[in-house]
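Reminder to self: tokens first, then the designed residues, so the page reads top to bottom the way the pipeline ran.
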């Protein structure tokens, strides 16, 4: 995997937004897999600025969710559908009809999970999947010990993740759902390019285990080691635990600019 160390979150956002812009130039109807949470916000801001300035045209792009809470009422402002509409679909001018996600309000959750995997495959697969990482090493909501070949399914959040996400629910962990639908690790690995962004010291240990630790279900993000095109973008704080940081800096500094990430 490629590791790119950037000075701060804004630089990470700019780098990834440029890569998405490049993809949309080559493939205007690319299917973009998007994550939620705090980390990807600088990416979406940078991309929206490129769309506003006319540098990037996302009008034909397609967007799909990585995961969704189970049991939030439709239209809840913190459902990931609402968040992606607010942060990605609307600001980028993506056609809402070209936006899909798992149905967290479905009565038959298992059928909804299966239907989502089928819809992703029918759409031709995800071209670029943006990922954050949990402080416990999760990607999507594949919590530690998730099967490395899992498909989209229901998962139970750890208390640590619910605590981490309570900030989106007025700081009240009781309001954070216990269950989610998440693309499985196998589903995520089907995307053609995986781009994981991690920022802040709270992610340093998870990043070190992901990049330099063994491939292990206990660190779900370590599954990126299996992917032929995985890019990990980290700010200085999140890179703090990397033993090979100097090598990663050297490699990126000497990379031909036409290669992109
Ligand atoms: C959300 C998701 C999660 C987050 C992770 C980090 O769609 O897939 O894996 O990326 O929990 O969240 P933040 O960025 O808020 O620290």
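Designed residues (261 positions):
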């Amino acid at each position: 995997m490629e590791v790119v160390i950037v000075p701060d979150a804004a630089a990470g956002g700019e780098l990834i937004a440029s890569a998405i812009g490049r993809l949309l130039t080559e493939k205007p109807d690319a299917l973009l897999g998007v994550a939620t949470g705090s980390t990807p916000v600088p990416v979406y801001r940078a991309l929206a600025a490129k769309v506003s300035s006319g540098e990037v045209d996302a009008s034909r792009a397609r967007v799909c969710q990585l995961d969704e809470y189970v049991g939030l009422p439709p239209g809840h402002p913190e459902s990931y559908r609402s968040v992606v509409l607010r942060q990605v679909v609307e600001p980028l001018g993506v056609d809402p009809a070209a936006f899909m996600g798992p149905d967290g309000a479905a009565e038959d959750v298992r059928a909804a999970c299966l239907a989502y995997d089928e819809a992703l495959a029918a759409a031709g697969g995800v071209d670029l999947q943006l990922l954050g990482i949990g402080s416990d090493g999760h990607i999507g909501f594949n919590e530690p010990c998730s099967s490395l070949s899992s498909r989209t399914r229901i998962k139970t959040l750890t208390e640590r993740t619910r605590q981490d996400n309570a900030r989106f629910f007025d700081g009240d962990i009781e309001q954070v759902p216990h269950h989610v639908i998440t693309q499985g690790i196998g589903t995520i690995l089907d995307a053609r390019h995986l781009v994981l962004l991690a920022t802040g010291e709270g992610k340093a240990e998870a990043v070190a285990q992901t990049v330099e630790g063994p491939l292990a279900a206990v660190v779900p993000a370590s599954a990126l080691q299996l992917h032929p095109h995985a890019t990990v973008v980290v700010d200085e704080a999140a890179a703090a635990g990397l033993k090979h940081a100097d090598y990663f800096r050297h490699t990126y500094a000497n990379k031909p600019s036409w290669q992109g990430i």
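The pocket of fructose -6-phosphate is lined by residues 35-39, 66-67, 80, 132-134, 138-141 (CB under 6 Å).
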